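Subject line: Sequence and fold of a protein, written as structure tokens
Area: Proteins and the way their chains fold up in space.
Start of record: The labelled sequence and token lines come straight after this line.
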Amino acid sequence: MKHTNKSRGFTLIELLLAMGVFLIICAAMFSLLQLSQQRYSSETQLSGTFQEARLAMDQIVRDVNDAGYPSRGMFASGALIPTTSYVAGPIAWSPNYPGTPCSIGATCTTPGDFDLILETTIGGMVSYIRYQLIGTTLMRGSVAKNGTNPDALLTGSVMVPFLLNVMNQSSGVPIFKYACDTPPPAGVTPCPSAPSNYNATTNIRDVEVTLMVKTQLVDAQTGQVQIIELNGRAHRLNPSN
């Protein structure tokens, strides 16, 4: 009895078609994988930049909130105490420090849009803290008070990088904006830009802080750097002196 084997393999055309479909599926999978990696890289970089800016914002707000302690009024009236034992004002100024406070936005060099000097207590010692934008680097420095103009003390090696890639100056956006105590009913309002009785540094009540920080590398998806903006408001709690 004769048996006929009718089974056969795939033809060359069928194999080529199957291979083509397989390659198309692989290409789509690798494309999706690459897109996923780019998105992950972008989000990781953006998250890191945001975290650095947020930590910097928290530190600045905390320093402003704590500035002004201890004031001269906390010591016995008439007592002879060294000027290094108390703060002249929560926010230091230049020029004329520690004489008559200068006018914010008029005669003051500091405080300014990108430069702020605080007078506070660090580790039991009355000290100065300075935040100053130099180029795209926000610098921070601190030094014990010794009666000298803090603008002269807080320069050079005393200042260290605090936050990189700060784009405020190139964008024309001030890092620091000041609100001053004014008579009722106005209350706390933006400090006048013209000299008056209410735009001295001792009248500053609130400091609005804006940080514009760009990512270190270009975005893998868009090919452009990304910029994040953080806003915070510090409220001076201690007396002006």
Q: What stands out?
A: Helices lie at 12-66, 150-153, 168-171.
